[in-house]
Amino acid sequence: MNRRDLLRLAAAAALPLPWRKAVALAPPRLQADPFALGVASGPSAGGVVLWTRVAPGLEATLERLSHLPFEDYLAARRRLEAQSEPIEVRWELAADDGFRRIVRRGTAVAAPELAHSVHVELAGLQPGRWYFYRFVLGDAVSPVGRTRPQPTAAERVRFALASCQHYEYGHFGAYEAMRADDPELVLFVGDYIYEGGPRERRYRPHPFPTARTLADYRLRHALYRLDPALQRMHAHCPWVLTWDDHEVSNDYAGDVGEDPTIDGAARRAAAYQAYYEHMPLPAAALVERFSHVRVYRRIDAGALASFFVLDDRQYRDRQACQPPGRGGSNVVEDDACPERRDAARTLLGAEQLRWLRGELPASRARFNFLVQQTLFSQVARANGARRFWNDGWDGYPAERARVCELLARTRNAVVLGGDVHTTYVCDVKADFDDPASAVIATEFCGTSITSPTSFSAEAIARLAAANPHVRFADGTRRGYLLADLTPQALQVRLRVADDVTQPLPQVTTAAQWSVHDGRAGAQPD
Ligand code: FE
Ligand code: CA
Question: Distance from the CA of 164 to the center of ligand 1, in angstroms?
Fold first, then answer.
């Protein structure tokens, strides 16, 4: 049986069942393939990072763990962690997908300390040119990935924006449509995994308890990465990733989670390590082992675009006006929570903000994108007292004003985000409370791959009506944004899936907006 047949089988094995029946379903079952988690690539400062994780028999292990009582699960998990031999893996980079014209080849050590992950960084390749790569171990050959160093002279670029892929709420089949759309780059802005334990009435349940340890997070990433559509999308083109809260724990801030007594620096470091191990990140991310991992960075696509990838989780102050003894988010009344407006509060941290100040307004790229995790524009809840959700930028308005001051001085600034499981298209205002103030940038906040919103369509319509700079809002549909960029304009299509409980949903375009060169703000097409 070849690999394509196996993947087809895996997709078929995950056909919809009522949730009670589906509880007994194992994660997708493949044979003991050391490359069952696939391959991935992403940009590095000098070129590209090629990624894989050697994990022979991992699918079988996941399945076995899923049937064990909790105590046995813990013991099995520890044994899994104890597998400690380093493994030498060969890699090949070629000009063709048949690997007849090899451009580079070498070996890399898959270290047990890093879950046998492999990160190969290659510099000196030809910018904008497509390459093919694969890994070899014994007679096992990985799937073939396609990657390219970012172009220096592109006249157009097509990229996709995705976030929030909750395994239990559906299949990641939207990525099959994304792959057919053929973007050259994927921007993923957070909630790559969800850390929670199993709950009833979810569509694609898994049996694993809430992730708290390194072993838990590794298993969670592996479970997600076995999704065949996600895996194939990683192989299709390079990804640029930043994280949001669920890569660690719901609505954490700095190293404080919802329950400050259990969520601390150790849990965060475990989550950050597992994240690094599973993503095509350059070694430059590892500034301080795993207590701090730097994911904020700049990626240039020639004169056409620069992407400023932000991290608004790791360095932030706690959310304003938390109840005593609690972390996490709340909806707070404006009048009752002056702390929210405190100018000293930070979302990005001083060092990241300094970096952004130095880089963003000075960028000479035609379009400049803030690639970050959550909704940037103000969305006041105006039924009754004026209220704000304090986890997003609305919880840190002074920091947002500092970034707006930079956006106002930046050529064609566009903010991209996720997190809220709702598509928002917004005109970013110099002062959100003054309808007459200038539009200084444009925001596209993408919906989710699978995660649902708790807002009704009517509630989201009310929010949009109360905030006129919100030009479009839709929380009812899952999917991704597809962007086509030329020197003249950015065109963004909202691509929505009809039913993410199906492995292969129908995906259609629900809305289309453009940003024209030299004119901030979204224009309907
Ligand atoms: Fe999410
Ligand atoms: Ca989130």
Answer: 4
Query: What is the model's pLDDT at position 17?
Result: 28
Q: How far is the CA of 251 from the centre of ligand 2 (A)?
A: 7
Distance 372 CA to ligand 1 centre (A): 13
Backbone phi and psi for residue 340, each to the nearest 5 degrees, phi listed first:
-55, -35
Q: Which numbered ligand comes closest to the C-alpha of 246? A: 2
Which ligand is the nearest neighbour of the Cα of 194?
A: 1
Half-sphere exposure of 443 (CA within 13 A, CB side): 30
With CA atoms as reference, report the closest residue to 445 among 369, 382, 351, 376. Answer: 376
Does the model's pTM come out above 0.85? yes
Beta bridge partners of 358: none
Task: For residue 254, report the distance from its CA to the centre of ligand 2, in Å.
Answer: 14
- Rounded to the nearest angstrom, the distance between the alpha carbon of 519 and the centre of ligand 1 is 31
Residue pair 476/443 in contact (Cβ under 8 Å)? The answer is no
**Residue 28: what pLDDT?**
35
Bridge partners (DSSP) of residue 300 are: 306
Chain centroid offset of residue 508 CA = 22
Question: Strand, helix or coil at 482?
Answer: strand
Ligand nearest to the CA of 374: 2
How far is Cα 322 from Cα 345, in angstroms, rounded to an integer? 14
What's residue 55's pLDDT?
85
Cα(246) to centroid of ligand 2, in Å?
6
**Which ligand is the nearest neighbour of the Cα of 453?**
1
**pLDDT tens, 8-60?**
433 333 333 222 233 333 333 334 688 999 999 999 988 999 999 998 777 77
pLDDT reported for residue 171: 95
Ligand 2 ion: nearby residues, β-carbon < 5 Å? 191, 244-245, 419
**Closest by Cα among 129, 141, 82 to 103:** 129
> In angstroms, what is the span from residue 130 Cα to ligand 1's centroid?
32
Neighbouring residues of the ion ligand 1, judged by CB less than 5 Å: 164, 191, 451
DSSP per residue, 42-103: EE-SSEEEEEEE--TTHHHHHHHHHTS-HHHHHHHHHHHHT----EEEEEEEESSTT-SSEE
Distance 274 CA to ligand 1 centre (A): 18
Query: Measured at the alpha carbon of residue 177, what is the angle toward residues 173 and 179, in degrees to the nearest 5?
Result: 105
Q: Please list, in sequence order, all residues whose beta carbon lies within 8 angstroms of the beta carbon of residue 297, skipping any fewer than 6 positions away.
A: 284, 309
Please state the φ and ψ torsions of residue 110, each to the nearest 5 degrees. -90, 105
Query: Residue 192 CA: which ligand is closest?
Result: 1
As given in the structure block, the two tokens for residue 383 are 């039924």
Ligand with minimal distance to 249 CA: 2
Q: Which residues of the chain have pLDDT under 70?
A: 1-32, 80-84
CA distances from 492 to 7, 174, 275, 343, 444 (A): 31, 17, 29, 34, 8
- Quick one: tokens of 506? 């129908």
On whether the CB atoms of residues 286 and 292 are closer than 8 A, the answer is: no
